[in-house]
Amino acid sequence: MRQMIKKRCTDAAILFLATLSILIPAHLAAQATGRVEFEARVAPSGGQPEPVRQLPFYLLRKSLEDIHAEALQAAPAPDVNKFIDGLELTPELKAWMKKHHTVQLSGEEFTKSLTADDIVDTPELFKAYMAHNEAYRGAGFPEPKFKEKDRKSHPEKYQAEKDQYDAAIRKFIAASPDTVKGMDLELVNLNPGAKWIAMETRHAKMVDANAMQLAHERYVVARTETDLEGHGSFSGLAPGNYWIGMFGTEAISGDVHQHWDVRVTVRPGETANVELSNFNAVRSSASAQNSNE
After folding, report:
1. Which of these, 42, 179, 277, 287, is most buried using a 10 Å CB contact count?
2. pTM score, two decimals?
3. What mean pLDDT comes out for the span 97-125?
4. 269 belongs to a structural domain
5. Which of 166, 191, 216 is where one domain is finished?
6. What would the DSSP string read from start to end of 242-275?
7. Pairing between strand 220-225 and 231-237?
8. What is the extent of the structural domain holding 39?
């Protein structure tokens, strides 16, 4: 009888110790997790901060910037030089584009960048300049002396007179820079700027979509939505570094649009408090109308 009681006590002790060995690590593990509390507020230009209400926020193991870079590495940006090579333009204009790292042939910035040599030495630019300044003919505008019929019959004379004319045009442009303004209107049908912008836009959208998919598949730890006061939280987090971010949406207040990609460190058994505002936003941009004023 004593042996039976002794055995039962021994079994109970073993069961208790086994249960304790399970519960204690679980309790310690619960204590080891941390929590993130955050408040998101956005202020319009010249206005007071407002809560970012009922918008999704994500906790990630990697910054959105690095995730975007990873997606970009998998789908490199279009090569502008390769794009230029595929255009049906003269070698001179292609060389000018590569030298200036642009495919935009319109706007004040473009015309201001043109030198007399650029215009005279580039067939498309020279043609556009001459067409734009047709009204100046006979009012001090240089007149050509070379004749097309001399190109073959008297090539030396033709070339000498053409060189003189080109030099006169260069001098006229240098003395009358206003005659360059507006010549881009003659290049509308040649300008590949819109095509390049469309290509860049398509690529940017593709990379953004790939980055979002990559984030969801590999790096999202948790998702939450802010309440009406702009508060949000993430709990049960293993210690380490995380990033609070938004993708697919923006916080908007008046003329300001922004999102965040803020690093936060979680420590065992502690709560990390984060304030998200205009000051630590990734982007805080006023509306186009306001920026143009």
Report:
1. 42
2. 0.72
3. 95
4. yes
5. 191
6. EEEE--S--EEETTEEEEEEEEEEE-TT-EEEEE
7. unpaired
8. 33-75+198-292
